[in-house]
Every structure is written in structure tokens, then in C-alpha cells.
Amino acid sequence: MSPADQAVRERALEVTRSFIVQAPAGSGKTELLIQRYLALLACVQRPEAVLAITFTRKAAGEMRRRVLEALERAGGPRPERPHEARTWELARAASSRDGKLKWGLQENPHRLEIRTIDSLCAALTRRMPWLSRLGAPPEIADDAQELYRAAARATLALLESDSYFEPLARLLEHLDNDAGALEMLLTGMLARRDQWLRHLGADRAELEAALESVIREELERVRRAVPAELAPAIAGCADFDVLPPAEPGSLEDWRKIADALLTQKETWRKNQLKRLPELSDCEELRRLLAQVRRLPPARFTDEQWATAQAAMEALKLAAAQLKLEFGRRRQADYIEVMQAALEALGRADEPTELMLALDGRIEHILVDEFQDTSLSQFRLLEMLTAGWTPGDGRTLFLVGDPMQSIYRFREAEVGLFLKAAQEGLGTVPLEPLRLSVNFRSDRRLVDWVNAAFPQVLAESDEVATGAVRFSPSDPRPEAPPGLEVRVHPLLGNGQEEAEAARVLEIVREAQARDPAARIAVLVRARTHLPAILRRLRLAGLRYRAVEIDSLAEVPLVEDLLALTRALLHPADRVAWLAILRAPWCGLTLEDLHALAADAPEAAVWDLIREEGRTARLSPEGRARLERLRQALADCLARRRPSLRAWVESAWLALGGPACAAEPGELENAETFFALLEQLDDGCDADLEALEERTRALWAAPDPQAPETLQVMTVHKAKGLEFDVVIVPGLGRPARADDPRLLAWLELPASAQGGRLLLAPVPEKGAETDPVAGYLRYVERQKARHEDGRLLYVAATRARRELHLIGRAGVERKGGEVKVKADSRSLLHRLWPAVRAEFEQAAGRLAPSGEAAGAPAGPPPLTLHRLAADWERPAPPPRLALPQDAMLAEGEAAEPAVSYVWVGQTLRHVGTVVHRLLHRIAREGLASWDRARVEALRPLYRAGLRDLGVAAEELEEAAEKVARALAGILEDPRGRWILAEHPAAESEYALSGVVEGRLVSVRLDRTFVDAAGVRWIIDYKTGLHEGGSVEEFLDREAERYRAQLERYAALLGRAEKRPIRMGLYFPLMAGWREWGAPRALPAV
Amino acid sequence: MAAAPVALDRAAAGNVVVTAGRRLARALRSQYALRARARGRELWPTPAILPWEAWIESLWEAALYAGVMLPARLDEDQELLVWQRVLEEAPQAGELLDLPATAEAARDSWNLMHAWRVDRRALEAQAGEDTRAFLEWALRFERRSESEGWLEAARRPDYLAERLHALRLPAAVTLAGFDEFTPQQKRFLGACQSAGVEIENLEPPAAPPGRAVRVAFPDRAQEWEAAARWARGLIERGEARTVGVVVPDLERVRGPLEGIFTRILEPEALLPAATPRRRCFNITAAPPLASAPVVRAALLALELDRARNPIARAGALLRSPFLAGAEAERGARALLEGQLREWGVWEVSVLDLRRWCREARRPCPLLRRALRAWSQLDCSLPERQRPGAWSRDFSRLLQKLGWPGERALSSEEHQAAAAFNELLERLARLDTVADGISRGDALGLLRRMAARTPHQPESEPAPVQVLGVLEAAGLRFDALWIAGLDDETWPRPSRPDSFLPLALQRALGLPHASPERELEFARRATRRLLASAARIVASRPLCEEDRPLGPSPLIRELPEVRAEDLGLAEGPDYIRIQAAARRSESFQDPCGPALGPDAWSRGGSRVFQYQALCPFRAFAELRLGAKAPEFPEPGLPPQDRGLAVHAALEHFWGEVGTRQRLCELSEQELAETLERAARAALERLEGRRGKLPGGFAELERRRLARLLRDWLELERERPPFRVLRREWERRIELAGIRADLKIDRVDQLADGRELILDYKTGRCSVKNWEGERPEDPQLPLYAVTYEGMPVGVAFARLKKGNLGFSGLADGCEPAPGIASGDLAARLAEWRATLERLAARFREGRAEVDPKKGDETCRTCRLWPLCRVHQAELSASEGEEEEAE
Ligand code: SF4
After folding, report:
1. Is residue A72 within a helix (H) or strand (E), and if so which, with residue range?
2. Handedness of CA B314, B319, B325, B330 (dihedral sign)
3. In the structure, which protein residues have their CB atom closer than 6 angstroms to any atom of ligand 1?
4. How far is B155 from chain A (nearest CA, A)?
5. Which residues of B touch A657 (CB under 8 A)?
6. B861 CA distance to ligand 1 middle (Å)
7. Contact A355/A361 with Cβ under 8 angstroms?
8. Comparing C-alpha atoms, which of A182, A267, A199, A278 is closest to residue A233?
9. A993 touches chain B (CB under 8 A)
10. ipTM rounded to 2 decimals
């Protein structure tokens, strides 16, 4: 039987049309995407003409893999199942295209253009380094938090410069001089600058126009909502004859009406209801009137405006500082790259540039998870499709599910999906399609979702607030009926333990029903988990906690962090005491006190080494401390070239791995070491960054836990499915959004006048400002809508069983029991669907009070440590080296006497002289005289310049060369050296093996003199400074003696002549010589 | 037979052997030596075996000194600087994110253009805006070099090719290890041939079939570990003497890879103070010189700024082992840093630093001396001068600071320090292309050089070599492992040049231009690698991060084997050995030693507060003196802003004294008094933590005056009072705890009774006085230890937007917000609570028991010491142990 929406699925494969497809949970959207991708491949000239954009790299990888597999399978037999057969057909067509056009997709999978939007932007900017002004591609920082903070800090530092003092000072005063708060606000804003950068130029008139248009629209809606027959009565209740006009000027009048009709709690006033019973049917009117009270005034006060301007000014500065910071560190974040890509596309005059950049035309674009698109991404798509016209053969295919848009915190705007469905994207009209069959869940589950969620999600779509209407699903034809959805109501305060117990119960039951069932516990926030996890552990259940525990809270890593801190900071007393208490040492408080209490200002390591001090410790403590002292002494004496190696060596020396309670924990150590590698700054690290980054990393899930019990957040579970889904913590309030330096709201394009509302952060300690208040209200609306979607995502992960657990408050009035969910909780959203269960439970509640569940105090802390007599095992043996397979080359380096660098010109003169001496020797003395030496000055200059001598010094240096050469030609010694001799060589390159090393030398000059003595002569271009010439020459001879004797030793191997060595100083016609080496170095 | 012996024969015959890379040249020289020695020779003329670039340069030098007139060569640094200047002068280039890096990219394109002899007209014809911008820069670069008489590496081969007649050329050249030749190389070689040089190219030998297998591992780390174990196994069993391990993208993964190889091959080197032994393996990719600790320290020291040094930099210098006196003053300097951080100093001048070196509790005279010497030189340096002069002065500045320190350097450190001097030398060579530059620019250039110069301490050749794909060109091993051959990595994604038109790159077949080109490259490289050893394993990871990976299409044909069949060296690594040797005991330690009979407590009222919040905290902070370093941010930290308010009020009431006087002050007088108070407060603050930057000081003065003005409005509304005491220091004793307290203020009311006030600039609530574990027991403590009974105790809330009093008074309301109640009864309760807390503190009770769990811990930084996170786990572990 084919699914009910088969026709829609077929239509989505029409390669000449553009679509936007709503694909609810479990509707098999990935398969559809792949089918369309294959269909498109079969009709393009180059595979690169089809671009598929996915939300994550993982999704891109999976899609690529599935496409490749489909292509591979196309060579096999036709599968039985209809949808697989369809894919097979499409793959066959694509594959034959591949064969015909020789794409070689199997050999070169990189030709499949399946990417994330970030990688697309990176590719675009790489191709347009200049247009994007990004230049050479910077490294992308995955975690740019540090960069934002550095930029915010640099911005604050501008307070010291007169030209920027004003705006920053104003903001600081606004924030009660709390620079830390301003830094945090700026940091937070930089992380989302793609949204506000374009607003920084906003002017007051425009913004006020926007305020007016908001007020006007809202008032119009209220006016419309007033039933005509009630209008006079409603106007009358605030002593008006007729309803005030829907004009900003009448806002106050409307407020009066609202106040007259509504209580503080936004319900109809009782007396008014008595007067006008019809009001009870006017729910919409009530809601809108309540809204009127929240509307901001239409004008900014000067004070407000000045602060807003200061905020914009500060943000501009911060953005500029961030760019500088990026430049300095050669890094950038994804936002920067995306902005640069947008700029490049904006700057490029027309599609030709884009084609040049992309190496040809993009003809088809597919976008997955379109509901999570941000405004910038939307604009990028608009730019990529600029100039597309219907019927020109180019198509767009957007897939997603607005009901599953849950990335508001990452700037996803579900409104964009709705907008695209209504208006198309850019110039491309889109035909909306909707899949309806759920291939995942059992029948009862689908039915429950269909029944519950119309009330949980919004009644109608609304672009501005991201309200999304529910769209029902059909169960798959062969779906079994399955189990009822279970709601588990908990009542009263402090229900963590009860909730945890309930979770455990459900897990046990589910496992009893089916030991192989895949069970997931899904929560909104990690903070909802500790009690549950503790309970599971106590029950001996192992689970996979995916990105739940911070790495910084794993004791093993905590100890490593303390060790790192201690190594880097001798005065970090917490860290030092911590490593003494850590399992590898395990000192008691008594011993710690004996060691350190009387010296609060001393470095602990100094105390450990202090003569006699350790005698105060208990004998066992002393032994333990001694073990640590021995382990760390060598570490502290010398750093290693890398921080990781340093810390790891200390950790191993202490027996760190032996402190791991389970071998699985060691993986966390590896994660920590990898972080050290990243942050290593010359065997040092910024500890603040290290702590923060450790906190931001996740501990590895228990490797021994089975796949059948998993714990994660709803966000993490998106795209996954489980047999049994348990959602606890529904009654918990959501965390409030962080304050923003500047809040804004872009109105949908239909509004008249301005489009932008904007307000600076409220003054510290002051009443909230009404514009900011209104914006916050709208944000809260958006958040509430998203809560509904989060529930939808959680509920639709289940295949067979769904359990919802939440806590509601109980209020007793007289005999009546009222149950209420926290208004900030998910339960509140879900309330219409579960209320009945909760009220029933409340009815069962004993009249005396709330369900029991006294929070248990923490158990006494049990510490662990290595046994007192534990000994570190020896490391395994190193690889035994075979007999020399290769030879060492060069000479072992000898430490220098001094690391002072001195000028180089003189050395360059020497080099040129050297080269010319070589030439003279080669050509023969006869052809050289003073005139020739003089005539060659241009050559000296060229040589000197080539070596890097500055223009101003050239003349003088060339002069020195000329003088030196002339001197040599006149010096009898010089002439003797350069004269023709038997077996003479200059710049003679020789190799040999000395002490097992391959030694290659270059002899400046060597020959055999008339007496049969082998001379080895080295030219030295030193010049003496002060002191006597003779002393200088002696010193030099001493300095080079060993070197020359090594030469002699080498040469002595090949011939048996007597050897003499000489140093010749051409710049000063100096000479030293000596006879056979005192002792030949051994071979 | 393989290429290598042929190349050696040629070299012996006097041919110049030119290799594709440095590594191959080195290997051939070493093999030549081994062979020579094997043939019993002790000394031989060094054979001419050198990589291509070196060959070109040697020809160039020979020509130069033979008198051929040539332009001056630009070395890489010089060339890059010229490109950078060109870009700086180009319109709008200032908008670039990282101009020097872009200059480098433009230079790369320029190189490519010449190596592949891309026709400029063709370029222009297809140019988009990016190419046009590049061509514009290139034109400027070309003009500039022409007018200055420079020639950069990209064009030198062409230049030489036209002047070969003037050179002394070798008779025969043998080329080895080239996968392909660029058109420029071909042309050069062609010209050589025409000039009579005999050219011979040694093709890589064909792969003997059936020697290679493929294998997969769960992730990269396991893949590398297997490679190391394989190498170990082969060498230990004597089946191979040299093992190569090829890893694509080696630079990126060098760190983790080195860790794994060390663990498997040289485990003893993991421990500190392992005496350096001959390495078993080496990795060709070298980290940048800038990352060597001793060089990093030098750069850091050169960044030292007279006026402004962020605390992170100052701290790093204080803790650097590479400066004068670093060993002798290690503890003192670290304590000084801790002190600065505690004061909230986020920026420090050298002058202040020198002062503190003298005034610190543990002074640092050596550092002070070094800084003084540094200052003297520092202020004598000119604004701008030539790079060479900066080289000299940088070296002198470092000398003043005592770089590279008093310890003897290890061989590695020594080599890095020497390499740093070479950097200075290179900086000096920029004299030919740069005039006067600022100190900052010179330092920037130096830093960039350090960042792009790879540095690897010299090491002996090792039997196991880890190398990149290109570096392996032409090398031969007994056995070879090729890692990372998954379908994402191999062939690689194309990486076409950024500035040249893509279509043109593809048409000309430029390297990395297209997936097809990458495939072709990968094919050739694979073929070559598969032929370079008798035994080959090609491996791949099954996933990267969370993405599954397939085998590279280029190894799909190889037979797949299981890891177990490869003969990997077995045995646990050192970490597992240690983990297996775990012998642990559990213990509980909720109590430290009791307080001695006359012990003073350091903490004042914090004794009671901490004991209530979390007993461990009281013990650790107040008895053990546990302190974690702070991370100061710009601006005054909250506690300093609080102190300033205290000080300002103290000063104000010192002048004004009574409510009556306050009411009598004229507007003018009030303003002046407030101004004085604010100033005095700031002076007090600066006396403690050093001068505040002007802007922040000014703002804080304004804030204080504003806040106090608002506050005094409230004080005016009170019934008359006289300020009896301000910042009143007292010694108290309660239940055996003696402590020093400071009471912010005591007012005497009209009836003579006394009201205790405590200024609060943060959050506060009278609720925190109550219960078994009061979170804020300070005022109760003041009250119960007061001589005679006070009339009341109250917070004076000085928080913007939340000004007012809150507290309790005995049957009266001395200020709005202070409730009237039965103080005596409360005092009795408080006393009982405080005495109980005192007793616990005295006993040394130190349970890890944060009053409100996480919330309490958030304001405490003792967690590594208290091990509170272990509490989460201990329950389950306990159970397990029982089960055993
Ligand atoms: S971190 Fe928490 S448990 Fe540890 S000492 Fe501080 S308050 Fe106590």
C-alpha cells in the first residue's frame, strides 16, 4: 500500500519546478531530498550545477554517503519496496548520466556539491578574497567567545582615548559603572552581530515612525475587534462618547478603556461583565486590550535616545575592534565569513562574477532544515538566486518543518519559512507542498499528537512572532495501534526526587516489556537531570549521556586542570592544595594544615621543599607528600616544549591514570589534553580561557553503557528516533534570556513607515523602559511559541511509547484544589492537552497536603586515593633501535656563549671576499691586480646587496671588500695561499663519517706545499675591536682550533701526509698556523 | 631496481642530482654516505645532491660571482614585505581583514602564475574583480622591483634560463622524485638541454603488485596508534629497518600524532626528566618557531610596553623561566602576580611593576634591576629606524631583561634561541626593502616571521619517519603505512588559487584547480607511494567527528584485512598499565585539626558566614589560606566599587558628623563635600591597587558623587542622629573565636541609643540573618558582640535603584525601612546560632556541604580542592564496592 501523500511525493520530484515542502516529523524527508537530488543529477551537464545545503556537517556527510550508496546500488537489482525502487530508478538515471558525461562520481565524490551553509560561504569567500575583503582565508574559530571578549575588552580600553570617551562613559554610567557588565553585554552582542550591524545607522525619526506604526496597527486591531453593537458601551466605560481613533495620539485613551475593562490580571472586571455579559465571548478583544497596556509610547525621550545612540556607537567600536582582533589572530568566526560572502555577492556586479567564482552556474539549489534559516542565510539564498525566473530551468527546493524550528537562540527565524511559503524566495515563486505520512510512530501516538498539538501550537501562522499552526500527520498504513501516551502528573514543590523515581520506574517497565527497546530521556535543560541521573546510577543502570556533563566537572579532569594550574602558577594556592588532596597524593586536611596553615603567603612548592617542614606531617602523609615531591621535582625544574607534554608528564609521574575509577574515564583526559594543545602558547596558557573552554566541553559518554538507554536534550535529539521517549522536567521554568545591550525587532514588511524597533538595555536599577519592555514582551511571545515546537519535537521522537512527566503547583482555596503550571514552563504550553490528568491527580491528593518528597541531604563525601604504598609501575620498554639504518648528519649543536645578536654587514663583506678569493684561486693569481680589483666594485656591490646590505652601507662595504682584496694581493702570505700548488682546491666539499655521524665540510683552501705538507686553511673575516691585534688572533685561533682539527682528522683518513692548519684573516692580513692536531678525535 | 641506487650511481659519476624536495636530497646524501662507507671509504668528495630550489640558487650565485650582472635577489621575507607595501598603497586594501596574509596569498598566486607560465593576456581576458585587483597589485609589484633592480624567486628560473650561456653548467643533471614538472621547470630544463646539459629524469618504479592491503579503524587516533604499533612490530621482529608513515595534512595533526607515537615507541619519554635518547621516530612537519617556549618568551619580552601591559602579559613575564633571576625569584614573582590579580589590576606599567618589585611582601630585586636596565634603554630608542637597527636594539632589550635566563639551556632550547637570532638576522636583511619603521611594525614583522618559520630541533635520523604526502616523494622504505585514506581526505577537495580565474586554472591544469585535477594528483601520488616500499598498509578512519567515512576510491581495489592480522606490536600502553595498576582506598575526611587555644582567625566575620555557607569553605579559605587567582577585567571590580562607596561615606561623615549639619549644608557646600569625599575614596583605592587609568577614575568619581547625593536624601528624612563611629575596628571574642571586625558605622540617636549600620553595595536581605545557617551573619555578629545593647542593626543599601535601609530595631523605627521588633529575643537566637557555628569552626569541621548546592558553589572557587563534584559520583562507586 502506498502512503496517502504519494502524489505529493511524486510531484516534489518534478525537476522543472520550485517547491517549499513542509515535512513533519517522521515523514521521510531525507529520502525525498535524496530522490530529488538524484533526479536533478540526471538532467544537468555537470554535477556541480546542483547544490544541496544542509544544516550540519554531519547531515552533509550522511547525505553524500546516501547518494553515493544509491548510485552504487543502481548497478544492482531493482529493490522490492516501492520507495526504494523509486530511489533506485532515479539513481540509475543519474548514474547513466554520470557514465555518459564521464563525471566519475564514484571516484571523485567531491564533485557532489553537498555542503553546509558555512562551508558554502567559506568557499565563496575563498573564491572572492578581494570582493569579500576577507583576503587570505582566515582560520575559522569554532569557539569565538574568547575573541569576542578580547574585542569587548579592547573596546572598554578605548575609554582612555578622548575621541571615544563619551559614548562609553555614558553607557558605563547607565550601568552604574559596572565595566564587567558592559564587557559581558558587548561580548554577547558581538556573537550575534550579523543581526544588528545593519541597524547601527538607524535614525530617530525612522525609529519613532516604526513605534507609531506598531501602535497604530495594534490599535486598529483592537478597534476591529470591538463588536459594533458594543462600541458605544465600551467607549462609555471610560467616559468617551465614541471609540477613540486608532492613532498614536489616542494611545492614552485606549489605555483608559483597557484599565476600565480589565483587572490587573487581565481578566474582565466583574462589574463590567455584569454590565456587558457579551464581553465574555470577546476573548480576542480581551487579549488585544491587554496588549494595549504594553504598547510603548511613540516617542523616545531625549535621555533614551542619547543612550541608544551611545549603545550604537559602542557597538560600532566593538565591531571594529573585533575585526582588528580577527586580523591579529588570523582567525574569524562563521558570522564574519557569512557577512563577507554577502558583501562579496553584493559588490559583485551581477551574476557573471558569481559564475566566475563558482566556476559555472548553479542551476538547482536544495535546502534542508529550512525552518532553521537565519535572516543572513535567507539573504544569501536570495543573492544566489538573483535573476532566476520561473521556467528558465533553474529550481529551488526548500524542505523543513516549521513545527520543528527550535533554534531561536541560534537566530533561526521560523517566520522566514512561512514568508517563503507565502511569497516565494527572492524572485523565485515556490509551490508549497505538505507531506503528511508519519513513518515513525505508532497509530495511537500519531493520533495523540494530532489531538493535542493544535492547542499547543498557535492557531494561525504569523511571520512576525514566529507563530506556527499545527499540521496533522497520518499514520503509515501498516502502523500498529501501539500504546497510549502516558502523562505522569506530580504535584507540589520539590519534586525532583519523585520525578527521578518515576523516570526509573518507567525505564524498568519499558525494559521489562522489551529488553532491546531503545529508550531516551529527553530534557529541555541539562540542569533538570542531576537527580534523575543519580537515581539511575544508584539503580545500577548505565546510560549514554550525550553532551550532558561538563568536562570541567569530571573529577579526573578537575584534577588535571588543577595540576595544569599548579604547574603554571606557583602561587595558585587552591590548585596546589588541590593536587595535594587529589587521589594521587591524598593528603588529609590534618596534613594539609600542618604543611601550609602557618604560611598563607608562601608558594606551596617552596613549603614542600623547606627543610624540616614535612616532619610536621603524619608519617603516612609524609610518605605521600614525598611521592609527590619526587614526581614533580623534575617537572618543575624544566618546562617541556609543549604544554600538553609537560602536563601529561607530570600526570603520569604522579600516577594520574591509576586514579581513574574506570578506564572509560581516561577518554576525558585525552579531550582535556587536546584542549591544552589548542591553547598552548609557548608552554603557557591563558588560564581563564582554559577554564572556560574546559567548562564548555562535554564529558565523553560512558563507553560501557548500552545504546538502549540514552539521556540528552531535546535539541540534541532532533532528527533521532527512539522506541520509548521519556520527557521529565516539563514543569520547570525556562531560563530567562540574557539581557542585550541593544534590543531590536524587525517588523514584517507589511507594516507602514519604519520597520525597526530598537531600545538600549535598561538603566541599572531603574524601571524598565517601555520600549525595551515591549520588545521583551514580543521576545517572550516568540519564546513561548518555540516552547510549543520544542514539545512537538520531543513528542515526535517516539516510535512506540511516550511518557510526559511534569510538576504543577497546587493551590488550596477552601475545599477547592487548583493546579497550576509555572507560566514559564513547557507544561504550561502543554496544559490544554494534559490538564485533565493533572486535575484528576489533584482530586486524588490527600487534603492534608502535598505529595511527600523531602529533599535528602547530601551523603557524606567519600574520597579516593591511591594506597599509601602504591608504586608507579615502570613504563613499557622503548623500541630497541636497530643498527644504524641511516646516518646522522651535521655536527651536534653546541650551546652558545652568548645570545646577543650583533650586526651583520661585516660578515657580508667577509662572504663576498670569500667568494672572490675562491674565484682568484680558480683563475690564477696572474690575472689579478689592483686595477682589476678596483674595476670589480660593481660586482662587490651586487654581491653585498644580494646578501641584504642596506643601500646606504653599500659603498662603504664595497670599499672594504676592495681594500681587503687589494691587501691580499699585496700580502705575501695571501699570495702564497692563493698561488698554484699541487693538489690545490678551494671551497672543497668533502664528506666522511666521524663518530658515527656524516660530516660534510667545505675547506676554504687546501694544498700541498713544496715540503709535502698538507695545508688546511680557513678564511676568517673577523676584525678585532680594541685590544691588541695579536691577542685577538690568538683568541680566534683558539676558538676555531677544534673545527680545523676536525677537518684535519677527516683529511688524515685519506692521506698520510703531515698536516698543518692555518687561519687567514683577509681583512687584516692576519695569520695563525699550527701543526698536527694534538689528538685526533676517534673515528 | 629502485630509483635511489640509480641516483647514487649518477651522483658518484659526477652528475648533479636534483631532487623534488629537501627530504629526498637528505636521504640520498645519507644513503650515499652509507654506501661509501660500506665500500670501505672514509672520505669522499661531497656529491652534488640538492633540491630544485637550492640548485637554481646555486647557479644564480655562481653566475653572480662569475661577474654576470644580475638583479638583487629578494628573499622570502623581503619579497613579502614588498607585496605588503604594495597592498598597503592600493586603494581600499585597508579594509582587508588581514592584509599581510593577503599579501602572502597574492604572492602565492604570483608564484603559481610564473611556475605555470600563465599568460597575462589570457588572465586579463577572463579576469573578474578579484583577478583584476590582483593584477593591479602585481603590476605595482613588478614596477617596484624593476625600478629597484630586484628579482624574486618566482621569476629567477626564467631569468637564468635566458642567460645560461654565461654560466658554468654541469655536464649532466639527474632528476629524482618529481611527480610532475611545472611548465617553468620544463622550460628551464629544456634550455639547459639546449645549452648541452644532459638531462635525465628518474621515473618512479612501477609498483610490484599485491603487496599492499587496506584496513579501517574506528577513528584517526586508533589508526595512528595502529601505525605506530605496526612499525614497532616490524622493527622489533627485524622485518624492517626503516618504516615510513604517511599522513595527509600532517601539520594540522602533528600534536596528537606525536603524543601517540611517543606513547607507543618511546613510552619512557612521557615521564619528566627522561634523559634524551636517540629518537625512534621523527615527524617532518615542524611547529612554528614562535611556539618554542624560549622564543615565545623573547617575543613576549619584546612586547613589554612602558605604559600598558595587560595582566595576562605581565603575568606571563613574571612566570617566564627565561628572564633574569627567574629561578631565584620564582615564588616571589608568582606571588606578586597573584597579588596584582587580587587587587584587580588589569593593566600595569613598567614603572608600577618596578615599584611593586620593591614593595612586595617578597621583593624581586633581580627583576627590578632588569626592568630598570630595560627602561633606560627603552626610553633611549628612536621612534623609527631601519629594521636592522631594530634587530640590534631588540637583542639589547632582551639582554637587559636577561633573556634567555639564568639556567643552562637544554639542547632544544638552545637551538630555538639560536634560531631566534637568525630571525633577527632576517629582520635586518629587510634593510634593503624598508626604510625607517616603527618599533611596533618591526615587532610585527618579527612575530610574523616567527609564526611562519617552522622550527624543529636537529635530531638524528630515526627508523620510523612520519611524513606528509609530498615529503615522501621519491623516498624508499622497507615498509610503509599510509594513513587517512578516506573518501573525504583522498583525493582532497579541490583548493584552487584564490586570485586566478577558475576556468583558466582548470583549462591549464593548475594544481588543486578542480576535483579532476586533485584526483589525478592523488592517483599519481598513490601509485608512487604504493611503489615505495615492499610492504604497504593503507588505512582509513571510519568516521571523523560524527560523520561516517568511506574508503578512498583510490584504495578500494586493495584487499581489505583486519587489524589483528597485521602483526601489530601488542601490549597495553603506559596509561593503561597505570590504570590497571590502580590500587585505591576510600576515606572520609570531614574534619581538620581543631583550632589552637589562642589562635586568631584571619577571616573576621567570614568565619561565621563561610561556616554557615559551607564548612569546607571556612576551613580551606580561613585555615589553609586557599586562594585562587583572579582574572581582573577592565574597570573596577564590584568589591572595589563597594570599597569606594564605604570610603566616600566614611570621609563624608567625618566632615559632616550629624544629620543636622547635613540638613544645613547649602547645595554648593554639599556638592563640594561630596566631591572631596569621592576624591578621598579614590585616593584610598589607588593607594592600595595602584593608579587607575584616567577615564575610569573620572567615571568612578562621578558615580560616587551621584550615588551619595541620592543616598543622603534618605538620610535627611531620618530622625536626628549623630554619626558616632565610622569604620570602627574591633576585636571580639565569641565562643572561643577571636576575630578582628570593622563596623561600617554606628549612629547615635536622639535618645542616646546606638544603631549599627552596615553598608551594602551588592545584594542583601535581612532574611540572610536567620536560620541555622545564616548566609550573612555579619550584623548579627556585630550586634551580639556589641558592648551594651544596640538599639538596632540595619543594612544601608547603597545599590543603584535600590537605596534604603532594612533591618531591625528595638521598639522603634530609626530610619524608614527598619522594622520595629523585639531585638533582645533575636539577639539570643543569633548568639546561639553564632556560637554553634563558632564551635564547629573551632573543631575544624570541614564538611563539603554547600547550603544551597550549586547556587552556593557558584560564588566559590574552591571546587578542585573540595572535590564537591565527586559527591555526584561517589554514591554509585560506593555501591559497586559493596557488590565486590
Ligand atoms: S565549591 Fe561549593 S562545596 Fe566546594 S567549598 Fe565552595 S561552597 Fe563548598
Report:
1. helix A57-73
2. positive
3. B 614, 616-617, 848, 850, 856-857, 860, 862-863, 866, 868
4. 16
5. 574-576, 578-579
6. 7
7. yes
8. A278
9. yes
10. 0.94
Question: Using CA atoms, how far apart are residues B625 and B617, in angstroms rounded to an integer?
Answer: 10
Write down the H helix ranges in B601-735: 606-613, 615-617, 638-656, 659-664, 667-689, 694-716
- B619: nearest CA in chain A? A589
Cα dihedral B803, B806, B811, B814 in deg (nearest 10): -30
- A1004 close contact with B: CB closer than 8 A: no
CB contact under 8 Å between A864 and B585, yes or no, is yes
Report d(CA A898, CA A906) in Å as an integer.
19
Report CA-CA distances (Å) from A846 to A494, A805, A849, A855: 17, 20, 6, 20
Cross-strand pairs, A263? none
Å from CA of A627 to ligand 1 middle: 28
C-alpha grid cell, residue A990: 668533502
Peptide bond just before A277 cis, omega within 30 deg:
no
Residue whose entry in the numeric block shows the C-alpha cell 554577502 = A342
The answer to whether the beta carbons of residues B539 and B476 sit under 8 Å apart is: no
Beta-carbon contacts of residue A216 (< 8 Å; ≥ 6 apart): A246, A247, A248, A752
- Evaluate whether B394 touches A902 at the Cβ level (below 8 Å): no
How far does Cα B585 stand from its chain's mean position? 38
Strand order from edge to edge, sheet including B172-176? B49-51, B16-19, B172-176, B198-202
Q: Which run of H or E residues covers position A803?
A: strand A798-813
Contacts of B186 by beta carbon, 8 Å cutoff, 6+ apart: none
Question: Which atom of ligand 1 approaches the CA of B620 most closely?
Answer: 5
Mutate to test the pocket of ligand 1, among B589, B866, B867 (most ligand atoms within 8 A of CB): B866
pTM over 0.90: yes
Residue A894 has pLDDT above 60, yes or no: no
- Name chain B contacts of A764, Cβ cutoff 8 Å: 800-801
B608 contact partners, CB below 8 Å, separation of at least 6: B774, B777, B778, B781, B834, B837, B838, B841
Q: Which residue of A has its CA nearest to B513?
A: A359
Conformation bin of residue B676: beta by default, left when phi > 0, alpha when psi is -120 to 50: alpha
Single out the residue of A864, A530, A585, A532 nearest to residue B880, CA to CA. A864
Best of B589, B617, B763, B866 to disrupt the A interface by mutation (most A CBs within 10 Å)? B589
Give B238-283 pLDDT, tens digit per residue.
999 899 999 988 988 998 999 999 999 999 999 987 676 778 899 9
Pairwise CA distance, residues A393 & B883, whole Å? 70
- Please give the pLDDT value at position A704: 84
Grid cell in block for residue B557: 581495489
State the DSSP code for A243. P
The size of the A-B interface in CB pairs under 8 A is 598
Percent of chain A scoring above 90 in pLDDT: 51
DSSP 3-state of A434 = strand
* Cell numbers standing for residue A804: 510526559
Predicted confidence band of residue A896 (pLDDT cuts 50, 70, 90): low
What is the per-residue pLDDT for B235?
A: 93
Give yes or no for a contact between B374 and B304, defined as CB atoms under 8 angstroms apart: yes
SS3 B281: strand
C-alpha B476/C-alpha A490 separation (Å) is: 72
Task: Classify A994 as helix, strand or coil.
Answer: strand
Q: A62-117, pLDDT tens digit by residue?
A: 999 999 999 999 999 999 888 889 999 999 999 999 999 999 998 889 999 999 99
- Dihedral of CA atoms A194, A197, A203, A204 in degrees, nearest 10, equals 60
Best to test chain A binding among B8, B29, B37, B43 (most A CBs inside 10 Å): B43
